[in-house]
Amino acid sequence: MSLNKYFKTEGPWSDARVEIMCSDTGGWRSERPVVDEEKCILCGFCAIYCPIQIMKLQSDLFQPDLDFCKGCGICAQECPTNAITMVSEGEFK
To answer: Which residue of 7, 15, 35, 77 shows the fewest CB atoms closer than 10 Å?
Structure first.
């Protein structure tokens, strides 16, 4: 029996184009990463250690894709220059 008729992707990761695998955050994230441009040295540690790979290089700065960020804070913990801080979602509403 082939599982392909049930699962449209072959692996555990999704590019979020397939609705069944879409992992958008919704409204439950309590903190979001904020990147300080002056402290960022473009080492890429935030992108390497992010469990769902949402840190993207955009115009010479790593920025999170907030549609998919879970707010875990690993990027902030791994940043060697403390360029990433976790800020309460309440400050953005």
So the answer is: 15
